[in-house]
Amino acid sequence: MKYILLLFSFISLCCKENIKDSEQIKTTKSFIENFTIDSIECKYIGDKIINKREELIQELKLALEKEHDRPEIWDFMTVDNKNSWNLLQFFDYKNLIINNITYKTYYFDINYEDGFYEGLLIINEKSDKIEYRNMVIFQNLTSEVNYYKKPIIKDYFIEFQYKTFSDIDTITTNRKEYFIVKDGLFLDYFKSKDGITEYENYTKKSKGNIQNHLKNGYWEESIYSFKNEGYNLEKGNYKLGLRDGDWIISNENLQVSIKTYKNGKLITEKNKDVSVIIQENKSTPEKVVGNLIFTKDSNDSLQINTEVLEYISNNTTRENSKYLFALEDYGEKNKYSEYWTSDEISKIKAYIFNTTYPLRKKYWTDKFEEWYGGKPENYIGDSDFWKKNNYYGLPKLEEYVRDFIITHHWTQY
Hints:
This protein has 10 helices and 19 strands. It has 413 residues and is of the alpha+beta class. The protein folds into 3 domains: 2-189, no CATH class; 192-272, no CATH class; 280-407, no CATH class. α5 packs parallel to α7 and α6 (322-333) runs antiparallel to α7 (342-363). The radius of gyration is 25 Å and the shape is elongated.
């Protein structure tokens, strides 16, 4: 066995070198059904993808969210290393045919720190059921910890074999996972025919009903979300392996949206009303601040939910001030966070100051020494940078900064 693993890694690395040094080979032919992929074949790698790259990154993220185990090179995919996605390359690859359906196939790779990670992404580009049409069909990591995922495909069944090993004699993971290909879509397949089952998804448990080997009926699923950079708890019903009807989506126990499906196709996704979310979480306002106001979009860029900030502005009183204090605490606790860039932190602090300063002045003028943990300069100290960024388009922020300086005789200015 150890010689097979060594050969497997050697083939992949040699393939990588051949990509660099030789002309890439185009092909329009496809693999036939009933096959195994043991390694990347360099002769099937075609042109580098440029124009569709961002689209393919989103498809790759959707495919990886289906994985029950996260890849060993997971750290390059997290928001803290968001620039690492820029190192990811995609190439055309020989198409695959599974159960009479042709799947567009892409080879991807990345050199990250001391590891080389590569794989094959397949997509049924004719389907609009985006959560079921894609799959990472093959993965290989060569590093201090080696990892691979390979498929055995027979008719409409796929058996994935996973192995993780730190050296050729130490295998730490050796497991299998099953999917069925139905109407060009990839559905979870269970060996048990009927009943209730559960499994772990990136160490979190999912549980629900199965019928005839497929998810059918009510499920509670823990799904890793690249968009939210964390786990969603998603509750709803399956119909013969596909989501159907309304699904409640919770982020860190906040019920934040409802997804509506029809036979596996996502029809709508509606966010819950902000006032409802806030009322439901009055006892734990830090959850709303930390998971709903300052977030990242699919491109890992800062998003600020001004609707929640407006709600805090309109509903804070001296007696009802938990959200205001939670907002200030967030700014203090995250000022050195690696999750945000320094520019993003400055913008976050600007929005916090813009929201809290007029409330502080209205309700707590007599307790100025307690403002912002007794260190208001933690916020106002960024005002030069705010000015350079035109105060982020906040119409009263400059006025609040000047008022703070004049009213409180802040000598730094």
